[in-house]
Amino acid sequence: MAGIYIHIPFCRQKCYYCDFYKTVNTSLQSDFIKALKSEILLQENYLEGEQVETIYFGGGTPSILTKENITEITGFLQEVFAISPGCEITFEANPDDLTPGYLADLYSSGIRRLSIGIQSFDDVLLKKMNRRHNATQAVDAIKNAVAAGFSDISADLIYGLPGLTKSGWKTNLETVFSLPVTHLSAYHLTYHEGTPFYTWLKKGTLKPATEPISIAHFETLVKMAAENGFEHYEISNFAKNGLYSKHNSSYWTGKKYLGLGPSAHSFDGFSRRWNVAHTEKYIHSLQQNQLCFEEEILTKENRYNEYILTGIRTKWGVSAAEIQNRFGTEKAAYFQQNMEKYLDRKLAVKTGEIYTLTQQGWFVSDEITANLMFI
């Protein structure tokens, strides 16, 4: 089984924290879709005939697309690839785009899973991030989605924001858990170079959240998610009734996926590719019927490191037996030796051959992952 990711690069305005590739030049939309279809044809054999069980529209802002755009893309994918009858199709959307009419269009075009970029229910913080929507629109988007027939709805929130208090974060969580969402993705704010937030941080005009505040936010998140029936299955992801993101889980479990669109990444088990992060160059290249990407062939060390990086993030953890079988005795011994100190510090636990992080371990997962990698 494999997945397909489609990067829709268009945004009506840029959020101050976001470093994903995007452009506000929406006049390129028609040419982009033509180029996307050309890329689909050129990548027909990338997945080697494997059945596609997940399709994910990310961005950018996929909800800039019309119903006709969506059905044109999904219909073309079905012509070229072996799409599973029960394929999970996820569509990222901004709350202010999710009017009752647009939600009806999405549902009738075959979308069944929504990922709504709420980020906060605080209007002051939304303005600080340069989000287009307000808190009322965020709440209405979820309610209207249910009314339109959607039963698998994921919400995105950000914590560790400048100015977000402990009580403010608790209020955000109370709001999201009072709504009919089945999945929550909650991310700590990261200051990415090239974003306005990063620039203001370096200038000293933006004061970051303190470490104690960030830890309190995370602890409150984990506690309240559990109280509301959400399973913590990946560092930043929580699911109700086992409704995990199948697409994102495929990244963490090492399945093949094809990335389409500017800046999209692909993985076939042995190499990684990433498309040019420039919409005009992407379009021009495909008008010449040529792909435009860079590629890295993964060594055994690379593959070991990726197995650690992705597996340790999840409730499924990392298997010592799997490391032995796939990467050999040296890597297995290296992993187990380095893991001992985290077991001693109660940052990880071992169940049979499986190592997983504890709640405390998840909060310092970057440090743990770096020390487990083979350099």
Give a written overview of the molecule:
With 375 residues, this protein is an alpha/beta fold. The chain folds into two domains: 250 residues, TIM Barrel (Alpha-Beta Barrel); 77 residues, Arc Repressor Mutant, subunit A (Orthogonal Bundle), CATH 1.10.10.920. 42% of the residues lie in helices and 22% in strands. The chain is built from 15 helices and 15 strands. The strands form three sheets. The protein has a nine-stranded mixed sheet, sandwiched between helices. Strand 2, helix 2 and strand 3 form a beta-alpha-beta unit. Helix 1 runs parallel beside helix 2, helix 1 crosses helix 10 and helix 12 packs antiparallel against helix 13. The chain is globular. The mean pLDDT is 96.
Question: Would you summarize the structure shown here?
Answer:
With 375 residues, this protein is α/β, with parallel strands linked by helices.
How much beta, percentage-wise?
15-25%
- Uncertain ranges: none
* SSE pattern, N- to C-terminal: EHEHEHEHHEHEHHEEHEEEHEHEHHEEHH
Count of all domains? 2
Strand order of the largest sheet: 7-8-6-5-4-3-2-1-9
- The rounded distance between the terminal residues' Cα atoms is 31 Å
| Mean pLDDT across every amino acid position | 96
Q: Mind telling me the CATH class of the largest domain? A: Alpha Beta
**Helical region count?**
15
Q: Shape, please? A: globular
| Total strands | 15
Category from helices, strands and their pairing: alpha/beta
